């Protein structure tokens, strides 16, 4: 029996991976325009980082992490998210010594043991942004506007940006007491997880997707009802800046996000048509996270989006480019002498950055032409015995069906001119 890939993973094959490259390139371009720099961290970290950083009460830590003991009996975990890892790097690599704020972005694989479904995998890929060292509301607004700009660049529509403030420690303590008081008589109606959350983190009950929990929390006090003056002013400023940037949003008082480290601003971007899990981006402010993992008091803001979910949304809205070949030409060398001469030509073209291929199976002219056509190659560079005698190269336009001969001695220059003219 042949070995198969692990459940919840996927192979990204030629014809598909080009779409990923298109999305990643767009993300990198937008980040450069906003002044963000890339960071890459290890794919596994000490388990304690995520226990302390993500939160002991989260589903990620309790149920979904890939955790193992290494040969030194140290508990390690494949990263389920990147914010805690970026904060660890900020502290360990002393990024707080650089001019603040530090503006970072990342693209890479994450790992969570959850039930695979549409747009949700056990190995998945995230693009995210983290800003460390600034507490101003403009940081939050810029991050959300970056997301909005990215989706506009990709052409996505029918989007909803939901924003909320989950407050700070002061106003969340007040909200916690009010929420627990409200839910006391409804506690038996909650799912088992939310009954456990009642004491540990009742705020997350508002985020539960269980219908019974949603019904039990109808009319529950929200964080917006208990915001302190500082949090209320901060949130009002974020909303004003989003309006100034042309971001279309709506305030969702029930939005709390699923991680313990969020403070003040929280947001999600929703898009319909991609299944029950309609969120394609989420994030917010986390002013206590760096300190929680052993660093100096440092305000932070960030977001993450799953590439698989963004690609699914682009697919539904017919916005993905075709995975066409980027080859400009294919060299068809017929015979050993032609192959040696052609290989020299091929090397000269590749040195100039021109994407050109050669048939590696020494097939017939007809078969090679069919292969070039199937790959979407524009030009066939044909070199056989007759062409060698005449010291010419036959260039056939596979799109127009036209062909011309050029002297071998000037063939490289002619092809370079054609490539640069885009013909």
Please characterize this protein's 3D structure:
The chain has 423 residues and is of the alpha+beta class. The chain folds into 2 domains: 17-168 and 228-316, BirA Bifunctional Protein, domain 2; 329-421, Rossmann fold (3-Layer(aba) Sandwich). The protein is 38% helix and 21% strand. The chain contains 15 helices and 16 strands. The chain has helices at residues 17-34, 47-53, 59-64, 83-92, 137-154, 169-183, 192-200, 211-216, 229-244, 289-292, 307-316, 336-351, 365-374, 385-390, 411-421; strands at 37-38, 44-46, 67-69, 75-78, 102-111, 123-132, 159-165, 249-251, 263-271, 279-285, 300-306, 329-333, 356-358, 379-383, 392-397, 402-407. The strands form 3 sheets. Strands 1-5-6-11-10-9-7-8 form an 8-stranded mixed β-sheet, with helices on both faces. Strands 13-12-14-15-16 form a 5-stranded mixed β-sheet, with helices on both faces. The protein has a 3-stranded antiparallel β-sheet with strand order 2-4-3. α1 packs antiparallel against α5 and α5 (137-154) runs parallel beside α9. The longest helix is centred in the first third of the chain and has 18 residues, at 17-34.
Short synopsis of the structure:
The chain is of the alpha+beta class. 38% of the residues lie in helices and 21% in strands. The strands form three sheets. The chain has an eight-stranded mixed sheet, with helices on both faces. Strands 13-12-14-15-16 form a five-stranded mixed sheet, sandwiched between helices.
């Amino acid at each position: 029996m042949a070995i198969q890939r692990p459940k919840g993973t996927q192979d990204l094959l030629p014809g598909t991976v080009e779409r990923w490259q298109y999305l990643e390139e767009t993300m990198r371009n937008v980040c450069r325009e906003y002044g963000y720099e890339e960071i890459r961290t290890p794919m596994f970290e000490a388990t304690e980082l995520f226990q302390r950083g993500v939160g002991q009460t989260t589903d990620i830590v309790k149920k979904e992490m890939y955790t193992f003991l290494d040969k030194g009996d140290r508990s390690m975990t494949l990263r389920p998210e990147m914010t805690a890892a970026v904060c660890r790097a900020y502290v360990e690599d002393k990024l707080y010594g650089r001019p603040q704020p530090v503006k970072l972005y990342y693209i890479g694989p994450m790992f969570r043991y959850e039930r695979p479904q549409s747009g949700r995998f056990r190995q998945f890929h995230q693009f995210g942004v983290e800003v460390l060292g600034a507490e101003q509301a403009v940081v939050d607004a810029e991050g959300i506007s970056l997301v909005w700009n990215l989706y506009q660049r990709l052409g996505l529509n029918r989007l909803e940006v939901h924003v909320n403030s989950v407050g700070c420690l002061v106003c969340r303590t007040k909200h916690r007491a009010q929420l627990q008081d409200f839910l006391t008589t409804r506690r038996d109606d909650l799912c088992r997880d939310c009954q456990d959350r009642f004491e540990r983190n009742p705020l997350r009950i508002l985020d539960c997707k269980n219908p019974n929990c949603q019904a039990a929390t109808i009319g529950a006090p929200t964080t917006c009802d208990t915001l302190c003056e500082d949090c209320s002013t901060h949130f009002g400023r974020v909303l004003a800046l989003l309006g100034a940037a042309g971001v279309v949003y709506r305030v969702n008082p029930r939005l709390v996000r699923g991680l313990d480290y969020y403070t003040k601003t929280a947001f999600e971007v929703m898009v319909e048509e991609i299944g029950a899990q309609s969120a394609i981006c989420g994030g917010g402010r986390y002013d206590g996270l760096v300190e929680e993992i052993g660093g100096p008091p440092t305000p932070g803001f960030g977001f993450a989006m799953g590439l698989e979910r963004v690609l699914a949304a682009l697919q539904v809205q017919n916005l993905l480019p075709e995975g066409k070949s980027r080859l400009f030409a294919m060299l068809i060398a017929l015979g050993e002498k032609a192959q040696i001469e052609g290989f020299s030509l091929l090397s000269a073209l590749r040195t100039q950055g021109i994407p050109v291929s050669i048939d590696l199976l020494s097939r017939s002219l007809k078969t090679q032409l069919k292969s070039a056509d199937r790959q979407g190659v524009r030009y066939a560079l044909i070199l056989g015995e007759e062409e060698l005698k005449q010291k010419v190269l036959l260039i056939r336009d596979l799109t127009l069906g036209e062909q011309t001969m050029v002297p071998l001695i000037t063939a490289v220059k002619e092809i370079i001119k054609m490539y640069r003219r885009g013909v």
